[in-house]
Amino acid sequence: MKKRLKLEPNNNNLIIWEAEQPKAxxxxxxxxxxxxxxxxxxxxxMNNEGFTVIGHDHLGHxxxxxxxxxxxxxxxxxxxxxxxxxxxxxLIQESYPELPIVLxxxxxxxxxxxxxxxxxxxxxxxxxxxATGQQPKFLTRFALILTECIRLIKGNKHRSKLLTYLSTxxxxxxxxxxxxxxxxxxxxxxxxxxxxxxxxxxFIPTIPMYRSIFYFSNQVASKQVIDEIPTQLPIxxxxxxxxxxxxxxxxxxRFVKLxxxxxxxxxxxxxxxxxxxxxxxxxxxxxxxxxxxxxTKNMDG
Length: 301
Fold this sequence. Notes:
Blueprint: E1 2-7, E2 12-17, E3 24-29, H1 40-48, E4 51-56, H2 79-95, E5 101-106, H3 108-120, E6 126-130, H4 137-154, H5 161-166, H6 168-172, H7 189-197, H8 207-220, H9 223-228, E7 235-240, H10 250-260, E8 266-271, H11 284-298
Parallel strand pairs: 3-4, 3-5, 5-6, 6-7, 7-8
Antiparallel strand pairs: 1-2, 2-4
């Protein structure tokens, strides 16, 4: 059963896909320029595996935006985004006090979850870091400086085509003979076309949104923040083998090496024949089964 709620105080759109007899709760934190209902097929598959799935739209995303002009508008403080994630976790705790919680963050959401778990130590039982990146700190520092320069000239409401060109657009330039501007997302042409036709996925972020993304990228790249993640927490790092954000696996392996230096329960999965959105790929059903199996084995911490 699917329920739609509003998460106070920011009125974030919150979706609950309820399993009949749930054995655990899966909390989803979605990526940039999308929204949580893009995960419905995956959520329903997890329902069949006994997981109730709960997720919210970030500010400036999906149905949380009151009108199209609000899409891509982030708060000035990145911590407000983490506050919203924490509110969902607290709601889950209150509503399902006896059930384990697995936290899953995709792409931008993976960076937020890495930061959230390191800094706030939420009461979760397992963590799934999906389609993440491990950019060098000098690059993220440069991105922050460039963003601030543009902000000083253009203001917070500016939507920078330059930052888009240098960030997400650059990923598509790594794809050989792309058919669309979003081929880097997946090899599933039907999914890519649906993304291009979806008005919730067709906006340029404002300056505060880019600043938040670069801030989280910069923070979680440090060994200090990685070491702040609870050392006994079961962690699955999963990404497409051909995901440009993860440098086709190289950046993912670099991150996992740092993680394993201080954490004892780390699993790595690089999905073959998959790019950035492994949950929308042609071989997504195999990924669904793998994730459900991993959660079942690790949800008790």
